[in-house]
Amino acid sequence: MNYVKTEIKQGINLHNINTNKFKTNLFATFLATPLTRENVTKNALLAAVLRRGTKKIKSQDLISKKLEEMYGASFDCGIEKTGDNQVIKFYLETINENFLPEKEELDKKSIEILFDIVFNPLIENEQFNEDYVESEKKKLKQIIDGKIDNKRAYSFERCIEEMFKNEPYGLYKFGYIEDLDLITPKSLYKYYCELLQKCKIDIFLSGDFEGKNINEIIKNNCEINKLTERKPEYIVNMEKTEIQEVKKTKIIEEKMQVGQGNLVIGLSSNSQIENSKFIMSVYNAILGGGANSKLFQNVREKNSLAYTAGSTFKRQKNTIFIRCGIEISNYDKALETIKKQIEDMRNGKFTEEDIENSKKLIISSIKGISAEQDSEITYYYGQELSDTFTNIEEYVKKIEKVTKKELVEVARDMWINTIYFLRD
Amino acid sequence: MEVIESLKLKEKEYIEKLDNGMTVIIIPKPGLEKKYVIWGTHFGSIDNRFIMPETKEEVFIPDGVAHFLEHKMFEQPDGTNSLDTLMGLGLDANAYTSNDHTAYLFECTDNFYEGLDELMDYVQHPYFTEENVEKEKGIIAQEIKMYDDEPSWRLYMNAMDCMYKENPIKIDIAGSVESISKITSDVLYKCYNTFYNPSNMVMVVCGDFNPEELIKEIKKRLLPNKKQEEIERIYPEKEKKINKKYEELEMEVSLPLFAFGIKDIEENANKEELVKKHIAIEILLNMIIGKSSDAYKELYEKGKLLSEPDLDYEFSDEYAHILISGQSTSPNEVKDKIENKIEEYKTNGINEEDFNRIRKKVYGDYVVEYNNVGNIARMFLADKMKKINSFDYIEEYKNVTKEYTENVLKNVFKRENMIMSVIKSKK
Q: Would you say residue B48 has pLDDT above 80?
C-alpha cells in the first residue's frame, strides 16, 4: 500500500501517500474538534484570520507573492463538518519539482509556509491583529448572510438544520452572526491557544518525494517541535448506527422569490445489521445515485417533473438526502412519486441488475479515489476519524458482498424524517 | 500518426486524422486507473444559421437546438437510454453543450471498451420522434428555470448583452421556453446530419492506453460515412463597438454581484499569436486585480471584496472578451479601481519584478491542468475546437515578454470597450 501513518507525538499524526501520478505535491494539515454551538463560529473565524498573516510573513499579499514566486503554489483553507466534528483544513499545493522549467527547491519551502500559517500567526500584545480580526468578522458575516444566494445549496443546508435541530450536526459550519459580535482579537487568540493544545492534528503529504527525506523535514520543523503531546478531543465516527427515536415526519415549507421549487427530503435509518453503512450506500445508489436510479428514472425521465432528481448518502450520519428541483405546482405529484420509490425499495421492488449497476457505480468511484490527491487524503482522513480502518480494497469487497436481502432489511428501517420545500 | 511531445510536462500527444475526416487525439497516462473519453462535435449554441453541405439549403434554427439535440441523443429506439446503459457499466457518463461545441463523454476505471461500444453507438444513431421531442421540452424547461434563478448566470448573460448587439453568444445555451417549443424532430435531424458528420468531430482519449491499439478499436466502431466539406456557418457581422456600458438587475442575493468586461475587437494574426495573447492577458489580469495586486489588497482590506475575483478571457473566431467577476458591496468602487490600475499601467508600464513573478504563477497554473484525465481531455477538445494545441501554452510561455504584454495592454484594454453588469440585492 502506498499509505503510511506515523505518530509524531501523541495526538499528532503524519500520513504519507506516495504517488507519482500527479504534476503536483499536496501538503495538508487538519485540526479536528467537536462541533459545538459555543465554538463553531470561532473555528470558522479562526480559519479566516490565520491566512491573513504570520510572524514571518506579515500580510496576505506577501504570502501570495511568495506563493506566486513558487510557480503559483496555492494555499487554501476551509471549514468542514465531518460527522460531529468541525475540521479546519489547510492545504498547500505546489508543482512537483520534476516539471519546473528550471531547478528549484519547493517542497521544504511549502512545508515551512504551511506550518507558519497554521501554527505561527501574527500576534501583537497577546492577541491577533485587530484589523485582521475585524475585517474577517465582516467577511464571515457576509458569507453567513450569503447562505441564501444559492437556492439549491440553501435548501439542502436548511433541511439538515431542521433534521438535526439542537444536535451538533445541525449547526451551520460557518457559524452564527449573533455569536460573531462577541468575539474579540483577544478572546479569539485565547481560544486558538486552547484549541492547539487539545485538537486532533493530522498532517498529510501526497506526491512524489523520492530522495527527499520528507518526514525528517516535517519532524524537524520548528513549529511542529513547539506542539505538545495531547489526548486529542474529537468525536470518533462509529461504524454502528446510533439508534434514533422514530418520530412523525417534520414538514417545513419556506417562501422566497424563486422560479423553481427545491424539495429536499431527509431519510433516517435505524438499521443495526452488520455493515449497514455499506448496504445503505448501495441502497442510496439504487434510489438516487445516478441516471439509472429510481428517482432519476421516475421523477425526471418518466414524469418530466424535474431536471435534477437524486440522492446523497451522508455516511457519518446515516442519513440519505433526496434532492429535486421541481415545478412548484408539481409538488404533490413529485412527493407522491418519491414516496412510491421509497415504498418500492421497502418491498424489494428492484432487480438484481439494479443492484449490480449500483455496485459498479460505487466501486468505480472508490477505485477512482487515488486518481485525485485531495480525494485520497479525504478518504484516509475519514478512516482516521472512524473507529475502524477499512482500506480501499476492503471497501470494494464489502460493497460487492451486499445482498438483496440485506438491502430490503435496511430499507424497512428507513423512515422519512424531514421534508423541506422552498417555493415562491 | 503524428506525435507531439512536451519535454517540460513529460507528456505525449498522438494525433490521427482518419479517412472519414475525424480527428482522434490520445494522451497516454501509463499506470493511471482512470480513463476518460470525450467525443465532440463543432456545433454549439452560436451555430444557429448555416448551409447544409449536401443540399446547399440554408437553415435557420430556433435557439437551444444544439443543447436539445444533446439531450435527445441518449434515447434509443428500443426504449433504453444510453446514459443508463453507460451508468449500468459503472461508468460516469455525461454530455454538455457550450457556445461552440457539444460533447459526449465518460470516465471509468473498468469496462472502457464496453463503454466505448455504447458511446460510439449512440452518438452515431439518432432517434428522434415527435413524441420523444415533446417529452423533452418539459425537462429542458425546468433546466432553463434552474438557470434563471441563478444570479451568476443572469450576471453573465447581461454582461454579454452589454458587449454584443447581435452576436449569437448572447443566446442562452439552453434557449428559452418559447424557442424550444418550436423545435421538431425534423430540425434535429437536419442539424444532426450536418454537424455530426465525422469531418466535424474530434475524439480525445486520456488514460493508460497503447495509442496504435486504441486507434484500431475506435476505427472498428465507426460506421461508414462520407467525408463532408466544411460547413458554411453564417454569423452576423462583427461589431466594432459595445452595445451598452451598463446593465443591472435586482435579485434575491445577500451581496451584489459584478462582472466587469472588456470586449476585444482586435483582429488576430494567427493561432500562435492567440495563445501568446491569451497568456499575456492572464498575466495582466493577475497584475491588475489578482491575489497579490495592490488593488485587491486595498479592496479586500476595506471589505469591498470577499475573495479574489474570477478572471477570464473567453474567445472564438466570433467573439472575444475579458471578464472580471465577483461579489462586492460596492461594484462601482471595484470598477473604478480596475480602470485606474489599467490606466496607470498604460502610462507607467508594468513592473518587471511583478511581471516575472506572475508569469511563473501562470506557468504553474497550466501545469496543474495536467493532474487529471478529465481535465486534460476536456482541455484538448475545447482548444482543438479553436484550432489550438493545448501544449502551446507551455511552449509559448517563455515568448511572452514584458514588452509584448504591454502591447497587449494597449491594444485590448481600451476604455471605450469596457462594460459592467451588476446584480443588485433586493431590499
A: yes
Instruction: State ipTM.
Output: 0.87
Mutate to test the interface with B, among A22, A64, A75, A300 (most CBs of B within 10 A): A64
- From chain A residues 199-228, the ones with a CB under 8 A of any chain B CB are none
Question: What pLDDT, in 10s, does the model give residues B19-41?
Answer: 999 999 999 999 898 999 999 99
Q: Are strands B201-207 and B23-28 parallel, antiparallel or unpaired?
A: parallel
Q: Indicate yes or no: CB of B303 within 8 angstroms of CB of A68.
A: no
Q: What percent of chain B has pLDDT over 70?
A: 100
pLDDT digits (tens, 9 = 90+) for B203-224: 999 999 999 999 999 999 999 9
Residue at a domain's end among A185, A210, A226 = A226
Q: Is the pLDDT of residue B234 over 90?
A: yes
Residues of B with catalytic function? 70
- Tell me the residue type at B22: M
Q: What is the mean pLDDT of chain A?
A: 94
Across A103-107, A153-157, B12-16, B265-269, least confident range: B265-269
Mean pLDDT, chain B, whole residue set: 94
pLDDT at residue A163 is higher than 90: yes
Q: What pLDDT is stored for residue B89 in this prediction?
A: 87
- Pairwise CB contact (< 8 Å): A357 & B8: no
Parent domain of B356: 246-425
Q: How many CB pairs under 8 A join A and B?
A: 171
Evaluate whether residue B238 is within a structural domain. no
The answer to whether A291 faces chain B, any CB pair under 8 Å, is yes
Based on the fold, state whether residues B28 and B134 are members of the same structural domain.
yes
Same domain for A193 and A289, yes or no, is: no
Residues 118-137 of A with CB under 8 A from B: 131, 135
B-chain CB neighbours of A145 within 8 Å are 254-255
Please write the tens of the pLDDT for every residue from A15-33. Answer: 999 999 999 999 999 999 9
Phi, psi of A337 (to 5 degrees): -65, -40
What residues of A are in contact with residue B10 (Cβ under 8 Å)? Answer: 98-99
Per the listing, cell 462535435 goes with: B41
Contacts of A300 in chain B (CB under 8 A): 139
Domain residues for A295?
250-423
Backbone angles phi, psi at B196, to 5 degrees: -95, 20
Domains held by chain A: number: 2
Q: Inspect the interface and report whether the beta carbons of A135 and B8 lie closer than 8 Å.
A: no
Closest-CA residue of chain A to B251: A257
Helix H segments across A2-94? 37-50, 60-69
Closest residue in chain B to residue A353, using alpha carbons only: B88
Quick one: which of A156, A81, A240, A169 has its CA closest to A421? Answer: A156
Nearest CB among A72, A297, A363 relative to B362 is that of A72
